[in-house]
Amino acid sequence: MASDSPEAIRKSIKLYIIIGAGLLVLTALTVAVSYVHFGSHSMNVAVGLLIACIKASLVGAIFMHLNHEKRLIYIFLVLAGVLFVALMGLFIFSLLDIPGQNLFGY
Amino acid sequence: MEIPHNVTARPDTGLYNSKIGIWLFLASEVMLFGGLFSGYIFLRLGADFPWPEHMLDVTKGCINTAILILSSVTVVMAWSSLKLRNFRHFQIYMSITLLCALGFCVVKAFEYKAKFTHLSCELSNGLVLEGHDNDDKGEGNDIVYKPSRAVFPIETGEIHFLEAVLPSNEKDAEAKAVVSLKVPVASIDGNKIGVYRGDDKKIKVALGNSEIEMIAAKLKGGDEFKIEDEVIEFTDWSELAKVIDAQRDVKKRFLRAENDRRKYAGTVNQATLAGVTAVPKKLSDSLETTTALAGALQKFFSEELTLLVDTKGEPVSIKPSALRNQDFGWTDKGATLRDGTIIEGEYLQKESKLMLAVDGVDLRRLSPTPGEYDPKIMKQRIEASGFAEQFPTIHAAWEEQFAKYEKKEAEGDHVTSKELYYAKYHGEHGDHAEGHDAGHGESHAAGESLERDFDSHGLPIYEIDRADVRFLSTFTPRLNTYYATYFLITGLHALHVIGGAIVLAYFLFTGRKMYKENPEHLANRVEVGGLFWHFVDLVWIFLFPVLYLL
Q1: Which residues, other chains included, contact B190 with Cβ-Cβ below 8 Å and sequence gap of 6+?
Q2: What phi, psi does B357 have (nearest 5°)?
Q3: What is the DSSP letter of B128?
Q4: Which residues of A touch B35 (CB under 8 A)?
Q5: What is the number of alpha carbons within 13 Å of residue B233 lying toward its C-beta?
Q6: What does the angle CA B438 – CA B441 – CA B443 come to, to the nearest 5 degrees?
Q7: Which chain B residue shows the shortest CA-CA distance from A15?
Q8: Which of B56, B101, B119, B410 has its CA 20 to 30 A from that of A12?
Q9: Are residues B69 and A64, on separate chains, in Cβ contact within 8 Å?
Q10: A54: contact with B, CB 8 A cutoff
Q11: CA angle (B121, B126, B129) in 5-degree steps
Q12: With an 8 Å Cβ cutoff, is A70 touching chain B?
């Protein structure tokens, strides 16, 4: 594998440090923007989660080497991602418990 | 045994096996934390209280975020060092990673500790005070009773309570409190079962036509105790001890009978057992007898047998943590403790006052509609609550903050309900002479200042009547769903940090041999361990804003 050659690894060490510093900067940014009001609280949550997603992508792509991984692992992750989204939506069913204002309107 | 594809890639997947393993595991971990995040969203959307935002220690959270990011960099550097065949660098980087893990746990421990000792006290008028037990003055927040008697429930076969009840010196005449053993006495009718007092004054269990002497075997009626209706009064502790011994025998017999019954009868539910007359017909006569006995004994011991101890009226202090339920476990007539003991008596209100060193106040619960804070209504409610009169120092601190943010709002800035109606007070050292004099030791009418003193941090100490407390809790899961999820998710995350650190420490301390044999194998191990470590970092990247900031 080309990416595992000593030269490539020496190169990527610099990248790791840059990404680490970038993550720290993004952390500071998350804290800073949490004190700024973006019109509504939902917007604040969205901005905060967006930055968290960027950070998570950096960790995933660079530290966890997902920028050059084998196909099989992407398949696992897509499956996990789909199920994760489903989990996030599960609580919608709690609306079924409220008489008169549930999903089906009865 | 040599496991294939530990070092070399499998031709079909292009990956070495443990890498596939760890990614499958991480995918399942995504599900685990995903479920918890989903639960968090659900609880947050349905919360009927102002959801705490920026309530945790952001500085500590920031430090921990930085620590985890640093450790993520060092763990990947440790792997790179192995790839470059530099074992020394690997050791250094891995050690830094482990120190980071330790640092994370230490910061977390401080964070948790602060929560465990901080109190939230909701008064019945909706005012929520935050603060600490005023323990630097040596006054606990005990609930005090002048007891008339204590009731110890006797559970079959359990005698531990006896040690607590029995005076250490049985022969000590002073110690001979009156102990009453309440025994249900039922009349015997035909084939029914019952516990009754025989003509010879012995307590007996009757079962169909046979009669089983139970406690009676040990209680040789007559002089040592008297039987009055349904109550046997002991005056001799040693007799009581014999009763307990008898109980243990009965428990053995009960269990044996119960085992037999289950073995032969399959499932006979508890209701059948309790209603002894309705013994299933399928059972043979002997089994019927056993079942009936078991049922009767079970009922007898689980419900009816209590031990009453005459406590000579000495005041009893009960720590709130000893109560079975801190909110409902006590009334002005008695309290139920965790171990089942019931203290009956008169609640001593004056001795049971709650002394709270207050460092914050949340006025948002005064609002009639949660989440909406109409300035007019809030003003009215705050005035009506007696906040200004009863808690002058805290009120002044809040008023100052409120004025500041009210002005900001008037200038068109966005102001949150927390900024307007939630105030922290950090204490003032030095000049608080007027506070010292305020109503010290005097009784007070409603509306008067409850301020009694200042603690060593300059926080005002208030004397709060327990009758006015609607809910009192430390900042633990029982306070609200926010803290429940906070402790659950961060606790689980911290366990992941510890688990990951143990694995990485194993690689660090035992890796040398493997490195000499096959450095690529160790590199792969570290890569897999590192992947888990990055995942733990990744979870924290989401946890930090979600719990601390948003």
Answers
A1: none
A2: -85, 110
A3: E
A4: 87
A5: 9
A6: 90
A7: B73
A8: B101
A9: no
A10: no
A11: 30
A12: yes
Report B:62-101 residues touching A (Cβ under 8 A): 62, 65-66, 69-70, 72-73, 76-77, 80, 83-84
Tokens of residue B114, six digits: 């602060």
Contact of A44 with chain B, judged by CB distance below 8 Å, is answered with: yes
How many CB contacts within 8 angstroms connect chain A with chain B? 125
Q: Tell me the pLDDT of chain B (550 aa) as tens digits.
A: 677 888 888 888 888 889 999 999 999 999 999 999 999 988 888 888 888 888 899 999 999 999 999 999 999 999 999 999 999 999 999 999 999 999 999 999 999 999 988 989 998 888 999 988 875 544 457 788 877 766 655 443 322 222 222 333 333 333 333 333 333 333 333 333 334 445 555 444 433 333 333 333 333 333 333 333 333 444 444 555 555 555 455 555 555 655 554 444 333 333 333 333 333 333 333 344 444 444 544 444 444 344 445 455 667 777 777 777 776 777 888 888 776 677 778 888 777 778 888 999 999 888 887 778 888 888 888 888 888 888 988 998 999 999 999 899 888 888 888 888 998 888 775 444 444 444 444 444 456 778 777 877 888 888 888 878 888 888 999 899 999 999 999 999 999 999 999 999 999 999 999 999 999 999 999 999 999 999 999 999 999 999 999 8
Residue of B25, B63, B69, B542 for testing the chain A interface, max A β-carbons within 10 Å = B69
What lies within 8 Å, CB to CB, of B192 at 6+ separation is B276, B277
ipTM, 2 decimals?
A: 0.91
Q: Which residue has the tokens 């009639």?
A: B368
Q: Which residue has the tokens 């200038």?
A: B411
In chain A, where are the structural domains located?
A: 2-68, 70-106
- A56 at the B interface (CB within 8 A)? yes
Alpha-carbon distance B394 to nearest alpha carbon in chain A (angstroms): 25
Residues of A in contact with B14 (CB under 8 A): 70-72
Contact of B11 with chain A, judged by CB distance below 8 Å, is answered with no
Q: Tokens representing B169?
A: 């010196």
